[in-house]
Design goal:
Keywords: Disulfide bond, FAD, Flavoprotein, Signal. This protein is an alpha/beta fold. It is 27% helix and 20% strand. The longest helix has 25 residues, at 550-574.
């Protein structure tokens, strides 16, 4: 009995702290190109997608089992456009085939981006790190203690306190002055009021991504293949009451086909962690989805599952650009106002945020190249239209880029859409519709958030960073007239905040859904109606967690890894 307790204690230490033989990024001995992989291989776990959830999940499972992690993109290490805060936006603006960012345009007309790199969205985003609230954790049925332990496990590698300088301090004080209280100081926790959140950029401005969590991995228990594009999950059906996942087919950068199979063992699994676009797409390509849609693409139906690809959501974001009469620091998201009416207020500043500092053709987060073209008819989404918008920004004086954006993102959202395949090629983007502001409550939250932004701009705390001569209606018109999207503008945009929300809607890349808990997967993230297959990533969310989801997506990878290991060890011990 005493021996069993000692073993259990040691396993707990290993699970929560990792083995001493772990390696430091970027020198992972287990990371290699898929071209080096054998034609056939066998593993206990096969994880499709080395992103924000896939990396911590693989690192955790590797402590006890043999894991294959397949990433369709390359390594983030050595790419300055990913690594440095000062280059933010450059990776998102890179439209080349080898870019870590793959642009897609929703049927709503909003240009968006999905990650194509080890570390996933944590390699591309603005870096803000904030946990989900206790109510969220309780509502989804997670174990609070393990959730907190998993957050800490993530934070020990990738989360930092940002240096808050003048402009961000003015936004912070303006929020408090506007009634977004109390002021909660620096915290990772989700608390109503104003706070300084965490960041995945360290004090030197270097980004730390989910790929860094592979430092926790057991090098002898994991194989990581880059540029490994999975084409389908393989299922056994003959003689079985339910389809059973037993491997995957993937191709390397040269197009050569490889097969990876699960080893014998009832608890071995394929786990899909491809993100909110990639996971429902992968299930459909593998024959799990709406049968009529699959048949239309000549895909053999393994399981008719009409909920795959449904309830796609993207939190709409709207912003007001505030020109500054004085220079401002370069800052990404640091301060957040968590209101009681369902809107989150955040801000970012500096010339490089418009791309002016690094490249007059980038335009950072709010670039028409990155993805803020809203409800443009497909025939108008042309390179010429983009070039015209960029040229109009080129003509502006450098002083026009001095200032910052104060933005609001609504919680939820309530409005939902759907995803469908365009082709059978996993490298092609699926068709996705988000239906921004379809539900009136979403629109009202946007309006209420913009009212808080207006109060911040007019606050005493923010006075040194605005021109007294520019009125609020003028700021609204200035933002709406800038080439941040190509949506035809309405005449009443400066007097109707509802119209401003609709005409200037943007993405903040927090899209989710398509494989939700309760619809496609169960509470254990197992695909309903199929054996030995799970989905673990943001596609399972019914609601976006906290102000910014990346902390919770990383936590979920760790959390589910620990749960899977513990449940398996308990099962093996009972047998």
């Amino acid at each position: 009995m005493k021996f069993d307790l000692i073993i259990a204690a040691l396993l707990g230490i290993f699970l929560f702290h990792g083995f001493c033989s772990s390696e430091k990024a970027p020198n992972y001995s287990f990371m290699r190109q898929a071209t080096t992989a054998p034609e056939i291989s066998h593993y206990d776990y096969i994880i499709i997608g080395g992103g924000t959830a896939g990396c911590p999940l693989a690192a955790t499972l590797s402590q006890n089992y043999h894991v294959l992690l397949l990433e369709r993109g390359g390594s983030p290490y050595g790419n300055p456009n990913i690594t440095y805060l000062s280059a933010f936006g450059s990776a998102l603006s890179d439209l080349s085939p080898k870019s870590p960012s793959q642009r897609f345009i929703s049927e709503d007309g909003v240009i968006n981006a999905r990650a194509r790199v080890l570390g996933g969205g944590s390699c591309l985003n603005a870096g803000f790190y904030s946990r989900a609230g206790p109510k969220y954790v309780s509502s989804v049925g997670w174990d609070g203690k393990l959730v907190n332990e998993s957050y800490v496990w993530v934070e020990n590698k990738v989360a930092f306190q940002p240096p808050v300088r003048q402009w961000q301090s003015a936004v912070r004080d303006g929020l408090v002055e506007s009634g977004v209280v109390p002021y909660n100081g620096f915290t990772f926790d989700h608390i109503n009021g104003t706070k300084i959140g965490g960041t995945i950029f360290d004090a030197a401005g270097r980004r730390h991504t989910a790929a860094d969590l592979l430092e926790y991995a057991n090098p002898s228990g994991i194989t990581l293949l880059l540029h490994a594009t999975v084409h389908k999950i393989m299922f056994k059906t003959r003689g079985l009451s339910r389809p059973k996942a037993h491997g995957v087919i993937f191709r390397d950068a040269l197009g050569k086909k490889h097969k990876a199979y699960l080893r014998r063992g009832e608890m071995n699994e394929v786990i899909v962690s491809c993100g909110a676009l990639g996971s429902p797409q992968m299930l459909m390509l593998s024959g799990v989805g709406p049968s009529e849609h699959l048949k239309a693409h000549n895909i053999t139906v393994v399981l008719d599952q009409p909920n795959v690809g449904q309830k796609m959501m993207d939190n709409p974001m709207n912003a007001i650009f505030v020109p500054s009469p004085v220079p401002v620091e370069v800052s990404l998201i640091q301060v957040v106002g968590i209101t009681r009416f369902g809107s989150y207020i955040e801000a970012a500043s500096g010339e490089n945020f418009s791309g002016y500092r690094s490249s007059r053709s980038d335009y950072g987060m709010f670039s028409p190249k990155i993805g803020q073209l809203s409800t443009v008819p497909p025939k108008q989404r042309t390179p010429e239209a983009l070039e015209k918008a960029i040229n109009s920004m080129n003509a502006l004086d450098a002083a026009a880029f001095r200032g910052g954006f104060i933005l609001e993102k609504i919680m939820g959202p309530i409005s939902t859409g759907h995803l469908e395949l365009r082709t059978r090629n996993p490298n092609d983007n699926p068709s996705v519709t988000f239906n921004y502001f379809k539900e009136p409550e979403d629109l009202q939250r946007c309006v209420n958030g913009l009212k808080v932004i207006e109060n911040i701009i007019e606050s005493k705390s923010f006075s040194q960073f605005r021109y007294d001569s520019i009125s609020l209606p003028a700021l609204l018109n200035l933002t709406a007239s800038a080439p941040v999207n190509l949506l035809p503008k309405h005449d009443n945009i400066s007097v109707s905040l509802e119209q401003f929300c609709k005409d200037t809607v943007m993405t903040i890349w927090h899209y989710h859904g398509g494989c939700q808990v309760g619809n496609v997967v169960d509470q254990d993230y197992k695909v309903i109606g199929v054996d030995n297959l799970r989905v673990i990533d943001g596609s399972t969310f019914n609601y976006s967690p906290g102000t910014n989801p990346q902390a919770t997506v990383m936590m979920l990878g760790r959390y589910m890894g620990v749960r899977i290991v513990n449940e398996r060890l308990a099962e093996e011990e009972s047998n």
